[in-house]
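User: I'm putting together a small comparison set for a docking exercise, and I want a reference complex before I start. The sequence is below, and the ligand is magnesium ion. Could you produce the 3D structure with the ligand included, as structure tokens?
Assistant: Of course. I'll restate your input first, then give the structure tokens for the complex.
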Amino acid sequence: MIFASSNQHKKIERAGHAIRQGELVIFPTETVYGIGAAAHNPAAVAKLYAAKNRPQFNPLIVHCASKDAAFSLVKTTKLAQQLADAFWPGPMSIVLTSIKNSPICSLARAGLDSVALRVPANPICQELLQCAGMPVVAPSANPSGRLSPTDVAHLDSALMAKCAEVIDAGKCEAGIESTIIDARNKIPVILRPGPITHSQIEDYLGTKCVYASSVSSPTSPTSIAPMAPIAPGQLASHYAPIAPLRMNATRKQEGEIFIGFNTPHADFHLTKTGNLEEAAAHLFDMLHLADKQNPLAIAVAPIPNIGVGEAINERLERAAAPRN
Ligand code: AMP
Ligand code: MG
């Protein structure tokens, strides 16, 4: 991770100003690069949906500089307080019931009475949120349905052209999108697996998590009916490269690029040592790289469905899902 230089500080200040002016800005977080807009400004949020070509029924995550700023927007619960104390700032988004007359525009919430909140840890992102001085909605900085960027080299030039600033801070640490937890009730509901794993959450809380039924559960956690609308994978195809993707591949077929997990004969490697965090951090990078070769398909070796492997497999399933 790159810390801000004095030029970078000026850029971040300009970006904060641009957000206040209703412009779009691309910035790093510890998960993936985000494209941000002022959360209270419906025109800015509409511009964001349009720039990404994102369906307006898919609500956005609201990024705040602190837990207090975030919780001033919602009715908090004991569970949410515990999760925030343990995992914020960090790669976890928490869904709660919005306060009435919320400053977050209803377009950002896709008209729901709930809102997803996150306090990110990345220092550049933190500084940007301070400079903006307001909550910022930020989905991943890619055209809707495509791979998330974990490096500025992955950014789509047409999307960049719609932004007032692009802040480059090298590669994102975690490399996959935040874990999303519905904390409106007593039991944590995983809406999207991510860098913070269900066992980390369970170990901390001493309570079992359940999975929303749209999320395939890795072990045997109970699934419950999702509270609409849930995480992006509800649109079955998501996080997709251009080339078709084949999971659990043990060997490369004609015309394929093979992405390995501890697999010596692969073209690209998520990890050569079986380290799942390393594999998560490399996932989108390797998919971008493989896609650039215009293969007939991208084959990915089996990923152990434990720890953050669960989030990697969830992303791969979406990428492999039939396209519209
Ligand atoms: P992303 O697409 O990575 O920006 O993540 C945003 C995801 O968070 C969306 O796909 C939503 O489904 C989920 N999300 C945001 N707000 C809410 C909410 N109020 N209730 C449930 N899920 C939400
Ligand atoms: Mg996204």
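Residues 58-61, 95, 109, 112, 114-116, 139-140, 177, 180, 191, 229-232 surround adenosine monophosphate (ligand 1) (CB under 6 Å). The chain has two domains: 6-180, 245-320.
User: Thanks, that's exactly what I needed.
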